C-alpha cells in the first residue's frame, strides 16, 4: 500500500474498542473479530481517531519516543497497512 | 401489515392486566409478574424493575406477521427485531416473548406442550437476558457457587462441566448463587454477583450422584437429557456476594483422561477474551451495547482474577477438582493478606 506524506488516515466507524492492560482491544462490528494493540499501537490508534496525515503522525511520535526516524516511519507504515488491510482505518489522498 | 411499534409503545388490548400480581426478586432485580414464579418474593434493594405480562396467541401472531424472523438452520430458536427496537424471541415447544426497547417489560406466552419448569428456564434465562441487556446490564453465562461467603464462577460452553462442578460443591455443603446467567455490579473496587433462580440444570446421572436423586427433576426440553432440579433453601445463597474468582473450563476435547488437573492464571488479555466469550445474549449487537460490553468486560478483567481450569472428564475426579479450586482460593486469600 502506498502512503504519501499527505495521505490522510482515520479510524473506520465500524468498530468499538477499549483500553486493556496497557494496550487495547478492538472489535470489528462487521466481522465480529477482535484485534489487540500494544502500547505504541494504542498511541497511534488514539491519534487516528481524528484524520491525520502520515507526516503529522511521524512528527508527533518522533517527539514522544526515543527512536530513529527511518525506523519510526517504517513501523508506522507497517501498522497502518495492517489496520487498513483489516478495514480498521480509512485511507484517503 | 400492521405497525408493529403499536404493540409495545402503547398498552395493547391483547395483553392481560391481571390484578393478581407478585413481585419477585431475581438477579438483583424486581420482577413484577402476573404469572407465579418459583422465586423468592422481592425483599431487598433492587437494581431494576421489570414487568412480566402475558398475551394470547393472536397478539404474537400479529407481531410475527410484522417482522422478518432470523432462524439459523436446524435451530429451534427464532429471533426478530421490531422497528421500535423491541425484540421478539421464540423457542419451539416452549414459548414466545416480546421485550420492550427499554427492557422494562416482557410480554410472554407459554406454549401448551411446554412444562411450566421448562418455560421458566427460558423466561428467566434467555428471554430475561434481552430485558437485562436493554436495561444496561452485561450478564455472563456462568454457573456460580459460594465458598466462604464469596462467589466462584465457572465459565464455559454448554457441556464443559459447569453444572457438574457446581453439583460437586453443593455435595460438600457449599451453596449455589446462580446457574446460567450471572449479573454483576462493580462497586468500590469489588464486584458483587447476584443470586439467580433456586435451581440447577443437571444430567440425570450427575443429579443422582450429587444432589440426592433426580426425582424432583423435570426435563428441560426434548433435545437434552438435562433435568431442571429445584434446590432447597439451604443449598442456595439468596444475597449478593463479592466475586472471588472466575474459572474458565477447558473443553472436554482439550483434555485427555490421564492428564492432571491444572489451574493456571490468565493474563489480563486472555482473561478479557475468556470473559467476552461468555457474555450472555449475542442478538443485541448495536454499537452502543458492544461498546458497553467491551468496557465492562475490560473493567471486570482488571478487578477479578480469571484462571483456566483443565481437568479430565472422570467422575471420581470431581472432588479433587473441587479441592484444587479451594486451594487456589486459600492461596489467593493468603496473598491478599500479606
Number of strands of chain B: 18
Low-confidence stretches of chain B: 1-11
Distance between the termini of chain B: 68 Å
Q: Output the radius of gyration of chain A.
A: 13 Å
Structural class designation of chain A: alpha+beta
Quick structural summary:
With 93 residues, chain A is α+β, with helices and mostly antiparallel strands. Chain A has helices spanning 39-47, 54-64, 69-85; strands at 8-11, 15-20, 23-28, 34-37, 52-53, 89-92.
Tell me what the structure shows:
The complex is a heterodimer of chains A (93) and B (338). Chain A is an alpha+beta fold and 93 residues long. Chain A has helices spanning 39-47, 54-64, 69-85; strands at 8-11, 15-20, 23-28, 34-37, 52-53, 89-92. Chain A has one domain (8-86): Arc Repressor Mutant, subunit A. Chain A has three helices and six strands; from the N terminus they run E-E-E-E-H-E-H-H-E. In chain A, the strands form two sheets. Chain A has a three-stranded antiparallel beta sheet. In chain A, strands 2-3-4 form a three-stranded antiparallel beta sheet. In chain A, a hairpin with a 2-residue loop joins strand 2 (15-20) and strand 3. The two termini of chain A are 12 Å apart. The mean pLDDT of chain A is 91. Chain B folds into two domains: 8-134, no CATH class; 140-337, P-loop containing nucleotide triphosphate hydrolases (Rossmann fold, 3-Layer(aba) Sandwich), CATH 3.40.50. In chain B, helix 4 (162-171) packs across helix 8 (318-337) and helix 6 crosses helix 7.
Amino acid at each position: 500500500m502506498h502512503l504519501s506524506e499527505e495521505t490522510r488516515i482515520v479510524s473506520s466507524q465500524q468498530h468499538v474498542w477499549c483500553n486493556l492492560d496497557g494496550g487495547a482491544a478492538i472489535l470489528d462490528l462487521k466481522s465480529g473479530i477482535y484485534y489487540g494493540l500494544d502500547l505504541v499501537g494504542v498511541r497511534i490508534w488514539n491519534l487516528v481517531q481524528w484524520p491525520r496525515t502520515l507526516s503529522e503522525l511521524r512528527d508527533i511520535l518522533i517527539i514522544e519516543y526515543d527512536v530513529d526516524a527511518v525506523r519510526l516511519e517504517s513501523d508506522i507504515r507497517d501498522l497502518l497497512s495492517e489496520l487498513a488491510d483489516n478495514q480498521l482505518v480509512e485511507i484517503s489522498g | 401489515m400492521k405497525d408493529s411499534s403499536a404493540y409495545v409503545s402503547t398498552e395493547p388490548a391483547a395483553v392481560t392486566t391481571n390484578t393478581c400480581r407478585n413481585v419477585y426478586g431475581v438477579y438483583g432485580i424486581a420482577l413484577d409478574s402476573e404469572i407465579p414464579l418459583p422465586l423468592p418474593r422481592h425483599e431487598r434493594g433492587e437494581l431494576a424493575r421489570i414487568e412480566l405480562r402475558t398475551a394470547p396467541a393472536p397478539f404474537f401472531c400479529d407481531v410475527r406477521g410484522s417482522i422478518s424472523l432470523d432462524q439459523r438452520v436446524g435451530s429451534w430458536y427464532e429471533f426478530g427485531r421490531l422497528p421500535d427496537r423491541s425484540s421478539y424471541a421464540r423457542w419451539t415447544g416452549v414459548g414466545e416473548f416480546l421485550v420492550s426497547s427499554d427492557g422494562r417489560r416482557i410480554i410472554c406466552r407459554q406454549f401448551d406442550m411446554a412444562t411450566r419448569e421448562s418455560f421458566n428456564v427460558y423466561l428467566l434465562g434467555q428471554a430475561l437476558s434481552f430485558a437485562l441487556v436493554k436495561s444496561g446490564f452485561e450478564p455472563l453465562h456462568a454457573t456460580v457457587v459460594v465458598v466462604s461467603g464469596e462467589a466462584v464462577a465457572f465459565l464455559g460452553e454448554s457441556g464443559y462441566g459447569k453444572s457438574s462442578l457446581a453439583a460437586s460443591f453443593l455435595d460438600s455443603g457449599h451453596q449455589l448463587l446462580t446457574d446460567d446467567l450471572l449479573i454483576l455490579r462493580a462497586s468500590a473496587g469489588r464486584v458483587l454477583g447476584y443470586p439467580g433462580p433456586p435451581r440447577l440444570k443437571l444430567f440425570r446421572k450427575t443429579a443422582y450422584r450429587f444432589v440426592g436423586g433426580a426425582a424432583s427433576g423435570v426435563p428441560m426440553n426434548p433435545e437434552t437429557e438435562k433435568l431442571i432440579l429445584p434446590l432447597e433453601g439451604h443449598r442456595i445463597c439468596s444475597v449478593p456476594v463479592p466475586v472471588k474468582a472466575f474459572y474458565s473450563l477447558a473443553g472436554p476435547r482439550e483434555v485427555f483422561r490421564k492428564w492432571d488437573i491444572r489451574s493456571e492464571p490468565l493474563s489480563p488479555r486472555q482473561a478479557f477474551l475468556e470473559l467476552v466469550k461468555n457474555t450472555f445474549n449475542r442478538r443485541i449487537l448495536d454499537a452502543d451495547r458492544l461498546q458497553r460490553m467491551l468496557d465492562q468486560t475490560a473493567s471486570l478483567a482488571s478487578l477479578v482474577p480469571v484462571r483456566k481450569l483443565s481437568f479430565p472428564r472422570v467422575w471420581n475426579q470431581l472432588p479433587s477438582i473441587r479441592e484444587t479450586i479451594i486451594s487456589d482460593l486459600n492461596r489467593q486469600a493468603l496473598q491478599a493478606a500479606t
